[in-house]
Amino acid sequence: MIKMKVSNLAVSYQHKPVIKDVSYTLKGGEMTSVIGPNGTGKTTMIKAIAHLIKYKGKVTLEDSNGQPISKNKIAYVPQMSTTTTTLSVFEMVLLGRVKELSWKVEKHHLDAVTQMLDGLGLLSLSDRPFCRLSGGQRQLVTMAQALVSKPKVLLLDEPTSALDLRHQLQVLDVAQQYTKQEGIITVAVLHDLALVARYSDNILLLHNGYVEKEGLQRDVLKKDLLQKVYQVEVDVSVSNKGYTTVTPIRPCNIKQLEYTA
Ligand SMILES: Nc1ncnc2c1ncn2[C@@H]1O[C@H](COP(=O)(O)OP(=O)(O)OP(=O)(O)O)[C@@H](O)[C@H]1O
After folding, report:
1. Mean of the pLDDT values across residues 59-76?
2. What is the pTM of this model?
3. 168 C-alpha vs ligand 1 centroid, how far in Å?
4. Ligand 1 pocket member 40 (CB < 6 A)
5. Residues 4, 9, 12, 13, Cα dihedral to 10°
6. CA–CA gap between residue 124 and residue 203 (Å, rounded)
7. What is the ipTM of this complex?
């Protein structure tokens, strides 16, 4: 099983600490959701583990034999692609294979792209220029591009923010299926706690640059903990079909609430 170990991670922007001292270990085959209020450092943290920004501390990635895995095997899908490229959807997804391509594009690469587009319901958009897609379609295409690169670690920054209900489930189903099948590590920054409850094997709750809590949904999606971190009164309920819902009720002053976590 592959393993990613993050030790004493710290990131500052212009000497202002954003991620202060974060440590955790992630395992292959598991989906981890990163949650927390706006501006708390979620994007910064996943950009650091993708080696896209400078950080202090240590991030190691190793296979089941303890051998290091190259950082090239980490795929990062940003919040929203604003590129104005005129490349087609097909070409954009094919770029996911760029490290393996030579002057001649082999059939198996083209087949992999077609299969991925088909799986995400994007085949009919193959020839459309990427710059003429809607926000949600762009999110799906960048996800396809990441998956076609055969990553060992898949980092998704708010992958469902522009998607309708059906596509939210579709994207997270694809990510979950791929994570389990290939035994990779997937980390998704999500704000929708119903999706978090449904798809996470593990949840990291970030607050003010620290991990406030890490664990299973029953340990993290707790009323008093969420109230403390989000400063909002919430109701946490589980339907008779087993789906967890976190309902925000009203913003609150934490001093009025009892915190026992
Ligand atoms: N390039 C940058 N330069 C300076 N400050 C930055 C930069 N990027 C982010 N920040 C600041 O770092 C803090 C954390 O930002 P980050 O985007 O990581 O938060 P987040 O938890 O992902 O937020 P959100 O939920 O709103 O997307 C914020 O205060 C933000 O303003």
Report:
1. 93
2. 0.92
3. 24
4. yes
5. 10
6. 35
7. 0.98
